[in-house]
Design goal:
alpha+beta, Serine Threonine Protein Phosphatase 5, Tetratricopeptide repeat, two-stranded antiparallel ribbon, 8 strands
Length: 387
């Protein structure tokens, strides 16, 4: 690619002349790779997907408009998953090499590794056996909304197959793609056990494969989510691509790990969302809350009682303008998961939409107390207190 040209300790403004100098001179390439730059992530903006996601953008235009906000914290001091950082890395590659990101991937990775069913996605292009993405909308499965692929860009606009990902995985055990020195940095944890594009951990006791180094990453985009785990001690690879709503891919991967290590996988739990939504539509939010409590009391091991279920229902209700019902469901989530910053953040958002400013502030404060890195909550508190 740009071998030897881009330095990990070089700064953003060294390579992207049109980027704002006051912040670009403070952020290094290493910090972009490790999600510690402090640049706001464009996907964190509350109305981004609703207002922007269907519109195509040129790379430099998108950078200037959506990836150039004021720093949320001093670079290198916090970890915050950041799609703006990886968008900027793609822009840097194009600026330095004079080639498109798509061309660089084809010439330097897909071609040499033999990944013939992998590429940069274009909605107009006809791909044999292309999967469609789906999501739940108040208990019904519907087509996922359109997303222009110029927006995810270097943060997630690729299509692939499990077989091609395996080829890429095996190439990472060689020096075909990058040197051993760079590979060592790639897989060395920085803040929050994140290297350069990977989470790195030692599997704890009690889990299948305990003691193994597990290098993993998940992903999500409209209608799809993915999960990959590299078990480097045995060169095993788990890849799950999903285009259906509600699946817990990390639990699936854990079950596959159990099989790999000769253990009995845990019995899959039933999804709860569809049943709760059916009750909600017919008996209201109070009926859905009562059903949730009854199922948890009588069948605690049969259903997947995770916080995502109630959170998703809450946001669907907000999207329908049913703010009071959304608050009811999100309050239940906060009661069930009082140590989760995310549930309070979501409840605060519902209160804010319902015009209950003080309750919104209180819940944003609770979210910030549980997760001091939650810059969105901090910003919201200031904004609401100034109103």
């Amino acid at each position: 690619m740009a071998k030897g040209t881009i330095k990990l300790d070089g700064h953003l403004s060294d390579y992207l002349p049109y980027y704002r100098k006051d912040t670009g001179a403070k952020v290094t390439i290493s910090q972009l790779l490790s999600h510690t730059s402090g640049i706001p992530s464009y996907t964190d903006a509350p109305n981004f997907f609703a207002d922007v996601s269907r519109n195509p953008y040129a790379v430099d235009e998108f950078v200037k408009k959506f990836c150039s906000g004021d720093l949320q914290y001093d670079p290198g001091t916090k970890f915050h998953y950041n799609n703006s950082g990886y968008f900027l890395l793609g822009a840097i590659l194009e600026q330095v090499t004079g080639k498109s990101y798509e061309t660089l991937l084809q010439e330097n990775i897909f071609g040499p590794v033999g990944m013939k069913d992998t590429g940069y996605d274009h909605s107009a292009e006809i791909l044999p056996k292309r999967a469609s993405g789906y999501q739940l909308d108040m208990g019904k499965v519907v087509n996922a909304p359109y997303l222009d692929m110029s927006l995810p860009y270097a943060a997630g606009s690729l299509y692939s197959t499990v077989e091609d990902i395996y080829k890429w995985d095996q190439a990472l055990y060689t020096d075909k793609l990058i040197s051993n020195e760079l590979k060592q940095k790639l897989f060395t944890p920085n803040l929050d056990n994140y290297g350069y594009g990977w989470f790195i951990r030692t599997i704890p006791a009690g889990e299948p494969g305990a003691g193994q180094t597990d290098i993993s990453h998940g992903g999500g985009i409209n209608g799809f989510n993915t999960h990959e785990e590299r078990l480097v001690g045995d060169h095993d690879l788990i890849v799950i691509f999903n285009n259906t709503p509600g699946a817990n891919l990390e639990d699936m991967a854990k079950g596959i790990r159990a099989i790999l290590y000769g253990q009995e996988p845990e019995k899959p739990k039933r999804g709860l969302g569809v049943e709760l939504v059916f009750t909600l539509m017919n008996h209201g939010a109070d009926g859905a809350v009562a059903q949730y409590r009854e199922l948890k009391r009588t069948k605690p091991n049969d259903y997947d009682f995770n916080e995502r279920v109630l959170n998703q229902i809450g946001y669907q209700l907000l999207g329908l303008g049913r703010t009071a019902d959304a608050i009811t469901m999100l309050k239940l989530n906060a009661e069930e998961y009082p140590k989760s910053a995310n549930v309070y953040d979501s409840l605060a958002e519902a209160y804010e939409k319902g015009g209950q400013k003080q309750l919104a502030i209180e819940n944003y404060r609770k979210a910030l107390e549980l997760d001091p890195k939650n810059q969105k909550a901090a910003d919201k508190i200031k904004e609401l207190e100034q109103k």
